[in-house]
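Hi all, long-time lurker, first post. I run a small reading group and we've been trying to get comfortable going from sequence to structure in the token notation. Rather than ask abstract questions, I figured I'd post a concrete chain and ask someone more experienced to write out its structure so we can walk through it together at our next meeting. Sequence below, copied exactly:
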Amino acid sequence: MKEFELKYGCNPNQKPSKIYMEDGSELPVTILNGRPGYINFLDAFNGWQLVSELKKATGLPAATSFKHVSPAGAAVGLPLSEVERKIYWVDDMDVEFTPMANAYARARGADRMSSFGDFIALSDTCDKATAMIIKREVSDGVIAPAFDEDALEILKAKKNGNYNVIQIDPSYVPAQIEKKQVFGVTFEQGRNELNIDDDFFSNIVTKNKELTEQAKIDLAIAMITLKYTQSNSVCYVKDGQAIGIGAGQQSRIHCTRLAGQKADNWWLRQSKKVMELPFREDVRRADRDNAIDLYIGDEYEDLLADGAWERVFTEKPSVFTKEEKRAWLDQNTDVTLGSDAFFPFGDNIERAHKSGVKFIAEPGGSIRDDNVIETCDKYDMVMAFTGIRLFHH
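-- Answer (accepted) --
Happy to help. Here is the structure in token form:
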């Protein structure tokens, strides 16, 4: 297949639309089911690059959940705890959770509000267990290097047979020079082939220089995720998965706050008050996600008002107070944080501290680097300067 005609571009009025190889060669993908669209392919190709690099960096199967050309979540295939199975709504599934299934459950579950209607990328073969998780979620499609026969059968039945399934050639190597057009003008640049490994975090500039092995893995996940996230961007990671991604913000502190709030929400979901919410049996997972988001946020009164809570709960929950939330958040520790460009002020570190951040990687190079380092030292954090920016547009 040398080209694939799309229904339309970013919007229905943008026609004609297609993907093709400029040199006339075969496309590196096979459409196994459905008819992916313009944005689907943008998400698929960016997601595939992300998970491929995560697999290379960690040696573990990786998955990402993409929405609007930025990842909502990314993770490697470490085992799920009982708490994680519950907050990711997979504790009721009678399947053997494979590393690939674990990776997607984590990638999808970290920010379920943003992952709703995602496009999935998998680093390894999509097996039946992974397909079973995908089956029950609202999703646009999946890209992977291969699909087991029973997994493909499950996916082809999704969305009345219209679910998008893309198989990519894992041996495909893109040209070193990439081009795109904006306003009729062609842009050309060398691909970002930066390799992120342990040496990437060797320049530690804080007094505390004890970077744990898990922190190195988590920082690699953060920086690889940022490499394919619309800039400005900041990523919080813990135990092999992104737990908060702030993308496309003009201000660095707004990135840090947005990603930090998402990381906080991920941790608050694990609190006893949230896990014991008395949901009615007929409330769907997506509606539960919406209710939890309201319950742990500032607009909880909309959920707990008379006439509202009865539609969701069997009994009215007590308010999750600001003090209770803060006490629970203070128990979250050893979080890592990556930034695609330097932190201009120490306020970013102050915000990161509130979300349990212990390890940080950022390019460095700000005229206020001394202030940023000083703030890290105040909280006994470990910070590495990578010296390399990771903007993505």
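A couple of things your group might point at:
The chain has a mean pLDDT of 96.
The radius of gyration is 21 Å.
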